[in-house]
Amino acid sequence: MARASATKVGGPAPALELPDTEGRVHTLPAPGEAPATVVVWTCNHCPYALGWHDRLVEVGRDYGGRGVRFLAVNSNDAERYPGDSLEAMRDRVRQEDWPFPYLHDESQRAARDWAAQTTPHVYVLDPDLQVRYEGAPDADHMDPALEAAWLREALDDLLSAREVSRAETQPVGCSIKWKR
């Protein structure tokens, strides 16, 4: 069942401090350190997350050179979904060319703090770490031609010092797999 988001557009982003697949701890940038930050909940097995993955990677490549930070987070219960274990995450990152860290939220605290609902669930933060976009990358995980248009729109608006024109869409995907 989807929960109402505690992370609201226009409100502050919750703290985030998680290890990546090699154990390095990542946090949100300090206020003013990055022109925008993208935090996306994803996983290894969900067809929605897999359908959008290449588009998210391309956005990471396209905007990373402009100083935008990207963090991918997996919060799924690895006991019930072994394909989402830390080892499986590690294997995936080693086999693929990820332009951003893949963070492991074993306790699921970050997912709860952010009220992440699905994989994927995208958040875009402004330089002051205020949430300016929340939702899906674009309108259809099965249509690569959409190129994560909603995410790109939000980033283009922020990087041009405009209000984000489409600040919220419905996140679509597999539910976060909560521990029992």
Task: Tell me what the structure shows.
There is one protein chain. The chain is of the alpha/beta class. The chain has helices at 47-64, 86-95, 109-114, 149-159; strands spanning 17-19, 25-27, 37-41, 69-74, 102-104, 118-119, 121-125, 131-135, 174-175. The strands form three sheets. A five-stranded mixed sheet has the order 5-4-3-7-8. The model is unreliable at 1-5 (pLDDT under 50).
Properties at a glance:
180 residues, alpha/beta, five-stranded mixed sheet, two-stranded antiparallel ribbon, 4 helices
**Oligomer class:** single chain
DSSP helix count? 4
Largest β-sheet summary: 5 strands, mixed
> Helix-strand pattern, N to C?
EEEHEHEHEEEHE
Concise summary:
This protein has four helices and nine strands, in the order E-E-E-H-E-H-E-H-E-E-E-H-E. With 180 residues, it is α/β, with parallel strands linked by helices.
Topology overview:
Blueprint (H helix, E strand, L loop, with lengths): L16 E3 L5 E3 L9 E5 L5 H18 L4 E6 L11 H10 L6 E3 L4 H6 L3 E2 L1 E5 L5 E5 L13 H11 L14 E2 L5
Parallel strand pairs: 3-4, 4-5
Antiparallel strand pairs: 1-2, 3-7, 6-9, 7-8
